[in-house]
Structure formats: C-alpha cells, structure tokens
Amino acid sequence: MNREDFGSDFEWGVSTAAYQIEGSHDVDGKGLSIWDVFTSKKGKVRNNHHGNTACDFYNCFKGDIGLIKDLNIPNFRFSISWSRIIPNGQGAVNQNGIDYYNRIIDYSLECGITPWLTLYHWDLPQALELRGGWTNRDIIGWFSDYTELCAKNFGDRVNNWMVMNEPSVFTGAGYFLGIHAPGRSGLRNFLPAIHHVTLATSSAARQLKAIIPHANLGTTFSCTHIEPQAVTERNLLAVNRVDTLLNRTFLEPILGMGYPQNDLKVLRKLDKYIKGNDEADMAFDFDFIGFQNYTREIVKASFFTPYLGASLVKAEKRNVPLTDMKWEVYPQAMYHVIKKFDAYPQIRKIIITENGAAFPDIVVNGEVADEQRISYLKDNLQSILRAKKEGCKVDGYFVWTLTDNFEWAEGYHPRFGLIYVDFDTQRRIVKDSGKWYKEFLTRKA
Ligand SMILES: O=C(O)[C@H](O)[C@@H](O)[C@H](O)[C@H](O)CO
What we know:
Layout: E1 11-15, H1 18-21, H2 34-38, H3 57-70, E2 75-79, H4 82-85, H5 95-110, E3 114-120, H6 126-129, H7 139-154, E4 160-164, H8 167-176, H9 187-211, E5 216-222, E6 225-228, H10 233-248, H11 251-254, H12 278-281, E7 288-292, E8 296-301, E9 310-312, H13 332-342, E10 350-354, H14 371-389, E11 394-400, E12 419-422, E13 427-430, H15 432-442
Parallel strand pairs: 1-2, 1-11, 2-3, 3-4, 4-5, 5-7, 6-8, 7-10, 10-11
Antiparallel strand pairs: 8-9, 12-13
C-alpha cells in the first residue's frame, strides 16, 4: 500500500483540538470554557486532570507545527477556543486571542502546511452555559456571531473549515449522560441541545459561505459500525435503533432528510422544539462531511435501557484486541462506515477527519516503539483503500492525533499521539508511528 494508491488529490493530515492541547486556560484575556469549569470539580475527570496546561501548545505551537513539517504531513486540523477570542461568548472580542490564532495560521502556512479549522470542539464559553448553553435557542445567533468573527479574521488564509466536532458525543455525553462538560443529563437537556446544535451547524455554514464563498466547508460526525451480538430479530431491531441514534440523528437533518423519527420513537419528542422553517433551515449542502471512526459496537436488545431498548456489549467482555480506551481494534469497521455513508447521494465527499488509537506507550532509550499503533493505522488505511477502490467518494484521512493530550474524562492516561509528550517537562518524542506516517507520506511507489 502506497500513498499513490489513494490518488494525488487525497488529503493527508493530522487532527487536534484546542482544549486538549493549548493550556493557558486563563491568560491574555481568555474567558473560561465549560471544560475549564468541569475539570475544576473533583471526581469529574480521571486523576482530576485538567487542561490548564495540557501540551502548552499556546506557547509551544511553533515547535509542534515544526514537527508536523518534519513529518511531511500536509494538512493540520486544529480548533478555535470560542472563549479565547470572545471571553463571554458574546460581545467584547479578545484581540490577544485573535492574534494567537493568526500566529498559528501564519506559521502553518510559512511551514507549507494547510490549516483546517474546526469552529466548535466542545469548549463552550462558560458565560453562555450560564445562559442555558446548547439548550437555549439563542445560541444559534451567538454561534453565528462567533462564526462571522472567525470568518472575517481568518477566512483570507484558511480555506478549509469544519463547523462542529462530533455533535452526538458532546450533546450525548455533556447533556444526556452528564459525563462530559457541562455535566447535564436527561432528555430535557439532550433534546433541545440536539436541535439547536443542528440548526446552529447549518446557520454557521451559511454564514461562512456568505463571507468566504470559495471556502471548502464541512462538518464532522462521530460514527461507528454496529453489529448484533447474535442475529435475532430483537437484536437486529436494537441495532437499528442504536444506528439511528449514533449515526443518523445528527447527519440526516443536515442532508435535508429531517430527523429519523420513524426508526427511533424518542426522537418524536423533538417536535416540541421544531419551529417555523426549522426543517428547511437544518439542511446545508456541505462540500464534504468529516467522519470519525475508531472501532465497532456490538449491540443486544435490552429492556433496561430507556428510549433505546438496547445495550452495548463491552469489548473487554468479548475477548478481542483492545486499545487503552478499551475499544476493540477492528479496522474493518472503517470499511463498513465508508460504505454506509457513501450510499447517501447528498454527501458529495467523505473525509476521515479522525482515526487513531490509544496504546500504553513507554519510552525506552529515548524511543517509543508503538508497533500496535502502526498496525492500527495501516489496517484502517487498508480499509479505506478497499472502499475507495470500490468507488467510494472518500478523499482524505487525518490521524487522531499529533501529540498525546487531554483525553476528556480520561485525562492524560490514554495516549493517542504520533508524538509522545512528557507532561512534566513538555518534552516531545516522535513515536515510531510518527516516523512510519512520515515514511508513508514521503516514500515514492
Ligand atoms: O472526536 C472526538 O471524540 C474527539 O474529537 C477527540 O477529541 C477525542 O480525543 C478522540 O476522538 C479520541 O477519543
């Protein structure tokens, strides 16, 4: 398998997110985000870790972008911290924040690296959370204003934009299960969050298109391949309900298909929040859709899970190879999800905007021999190539992630990076997987 096999216009990159790498959570005028507040509460995150310093990217970005260059990675995905440029989420702008992101963009371009910018990667300004956050319909306007500011300040040099990162995860974990920031739970929070995030995604996209007409616009979705524990009618119906929630609820309204309410009854409760022209306003013709896949889920029917009637069969109970996140290593999942979403005629282009794995990396003589990660990446690329050879419109791949970083509720324990970080000294060590990715991107067939 060579880079050429994927075609010369295939986009190769690496993905990151602001809260997971930047640190400097309260300097130079930055306002607090929901993750700054969530991690300050004991017991919310493993080992009570937080992102106050993280990978200190705020200060070390030149070094890390230099490493992206050294690894010959042409595209760099990063996110903007809303509260770093608008401390209260609305109103006064923090010019220090704008200047910081201009430095990242300019230095990336100076290094010959193309910036791919994510507008929202989970770090909502706390000041907006206090006004209801994603459960308050006014957030559609707040997010649109933030988008306008970003487009006007960065649109002259950034051509590749992603509006949202994995809405199913940050609304599910943050507004239904309460295990991520802001720590809210229940349908009364989850349902309005679903609807407002969907409307905000398309209204922001229209805003971007109006200000940067030539921009390459996308948005990203978490997705997973789902199979029944045993092929029974009850389990197959359960698979369909889980698939509807995880893979279709946030995507299909954007594609102009409305919410898949026939396949998951609880989604009919969204009608309470759907107003006026919402159905039409939820749709937007994106240039690409970013899909993020890491594994597969095995599902069985269950009376005990309200609304879903299904439960996930934990991978660690299934005697299968696992990552440090206890996710099954199942690279065929990537093939299946691409085939699934390729079938949507409304999707013009698929880009895998995240894929990667956490493994227990150790430093030996200044090196990190992460063979498992190399195999994981290779096998997932094989799956992508297989789908591509079958005609699927998949045109890009971004590794999650550049440096080990703050893995949300798991803190710094899971290491996903191509580059090892010693969080005591901020020393970086390019892992063997980073060297492999470089060799793969550089080697001529
Ligand atoms: O998309 C996500 O879930 C997040 O974008 C990343 O921030 C995670 O760190 C990664 O997926 C590994 O879990």
